[in-house]
Design a protein that fits this description.
Elements lengths: L1 H17 L1 E7 L4 E6 L4 E7 L8 E5 L4 E5 L9 E7 L6 E10 L1 E7 L4 E6 L5 E5 L6 E5 L6 E5 L4 E5 L7 E3 L8 E4 L7 E6 L4 E6 L4 E5 L5 E5 L5 E8 L5 H18 L1
Antiparallel strand pairs: 1-2, 1-20, 2-3, 4-5, 5-6, 6-7, 8-9, 9-10, 10-11, 12-13, 13-14, 14-15, 16-17, 17-18, 18-19
Helix pairs in contact: 1-2
Length: 261
């Protein structure tokens, strides 16, 4: 009985650690927003305080930092910049220039702790981004990639090409071009994010459409639409404790329960 209870406690703690809030950017107002997945409604957190156009979001779970790349910013000829975003106020703080234009995609890899960026529309390529300076280092030639995310259930970093059939690519091998996974139809410039609680990939785009994909991209469902221009998508989650830490927490809760009896 004790073992069953302890297992249940650890499972509950693990689920809580993976739970998170989904964020996007409203391009019409340059503001950070949250998305309620139970109702598909948006709530404005606050103004970014900077121009954002065709950029992306990525959450570093090791430090609790939401990163943002501003894409074109106020002009397509400007170099894209990396920012950190305050999840309470929405305010963006400049970290530094990436040194390249049209950085539209951003993804954090929790396995190696690295931040990656991708270029789209005007230029292409996969880059590693320095989280302290914003500087981008070229890794490999790619097709034009608009949004990226890390899919934890398969340990793959994936990205998609906006427009046309909007194909998705496996970008796990950073030294080679992405491997085509598949496509399920048109998606405009937008962002994607893996939902760990349901093992699906969510997508939102500049046309205001909101989609859900199977994590292997074998199917797609449109959840809603008509939201106006959105881009960038990322879950802000808690840091997942190590197994030993989870066990210690579970034992502590079990001891507390026995003491209350």
């Amino acid at each position: 009985m004790k073992r069953i209870l302890l297992t249940g406690i650890i499972a509950a703690l693990s689920s809580a650690a993976f739970a998170g809030t989904l964020y996007t950017v409203d391009e019409g107002t340059d503001s950070l927003q949250t998305i309620d997945l139970s109702t598909n409604t948006f709530t404005t957190v606050g103004s970014l305080g900077v121009s954002f156009e065709f950029g992306d979001l990525a959450f570093d779970s090791s430090t609790g930092t939401m990163f943002m790349v501003n894409g074109w910013g106020s002009n397509s000829g400007n170099q894209s910049s990396l920012y950190s975003v305050n999840l309470t106020t929405g305010a963006a703080t400049l970290i530094g220039s990436t040194g390249v234009t049209s950085m539209f995609g951003l993804a954090y890899n929790p396995v190696n702790g690295k931040l990656y960026g991708s270029r789209s529309t005007i230029g292409a390529g996969l880059y590693e981004i320095d989280k302290t300076t914003g500087a981008a280092t070229f890794l490999s030639a790619q097709t034009s990639l608009d949004g990226m995310t890390f899919v934890g259930s398969s340990n793959k970093r994936v990205g998609f090409e906006a427009g046309g059939s909007s194909p998705f690519y496996d970008l796990t091998d950073t030294s080679n071009p992405g491997v085509l996974i598949g496509s399920q139809g048109f998606v405009n410039n937008g962002g994607i994010a893996w939902d760990a609680t349901t093992d699906r990939v969510l997508a939102i785009d500049w046309s205001g459409s909101f989609y859900s994909y199977a994590s292997d991209f074998s199917s797609r469902t449109q959840l809603a639409g008509g939201f106006g221009s959105k881009d960038g998508l990322a879950f802000a989650t808690g840091v997942v404790p190590e197994t030993a830490t989870m066990l210690t927490l579970g034992v502590g809760l079990l001891a507390l329960r026995r003491r209350k009896k």
